[in-house]
Amino acid sequence: KLKPEGFQGHKEWLTEVNYLGQLHHKNLVKLIGYCSDGDNRLLVYEFMPKGSLENHLFRRGADPLSWAIRLKVAIGAARGLSFLHDAENQVIYRDFKASNILLDSEFNSKLSDFGLAKAGPTGDKTHVSTQVMGTHGYAAPEYIATG
């Protein structure tokens, strides 16, 4: 489904193509393809029939998720983050929120939207300087305070 409000700048689009083209894990959305023609850019993900977690939590009239499904979704999202943080080339995700957690037909969760992602520390470095990014209200307070 095309989402005009989801259109991003070229830099963010390229970041997403690079990360999702290289990273493969059952809790990361699969990038099927992409296209760029001038200022028009498109990403094609695997189909996630249950939509985003945000739709299930906040949409009017949505049936509430059982606690078992909520736990399954949370564990899947945590596994996706753990994979990014423990990968050989670590990734700082920077946009963890309900609208970026997509759900397949069995409510398996997959992280999407890597436009704000950044490479983690490499070599003997233990920290990465970064501009505070993400969606207000979802970022960890210590991240907002220290960057």
From TrEMBL:
Keyword terms, alphabetized: ATP-binding, Kinase, Nucleotide-binding, Serine/threonine-protein kinase, Transferase
GO molecular function, one term: protein serine/threonine kinase activity
Pfam families assigned to the protein according to its UniProt record, in alphabetical order: Pkinase
Classification via Gene3D superfamilies: Phosphorylase Kinase, domain 1, Transferase(Phosphotransferase) domain 1
Residues in Protein kinase domain copies: 1-147
Chemical reaction(s) catalysed: L-seryl-[protein] + ATP = O-phospho-L-seryl-[protein] + ADP + H(+); L-threonyl-[protein] + ATP = O-phospho-L-threonyl-[protein] + ADP + H(+)
Keyword Transferase listed: yes
E.C. no: 2.7.11.1
PROSITE patterns: PROTEIN_KINASE_DOM, PROTEIN_KINASE_ST
Protein name in UniProt: non-specific serine/threonine protein kinase
Native species: Oryza sativa subsp. japonica (Rice)
Phylogenetic placement of the source organism: Eukaryota, Viridiplantae, Streptophyta, Embryophyta, Tracheophyta
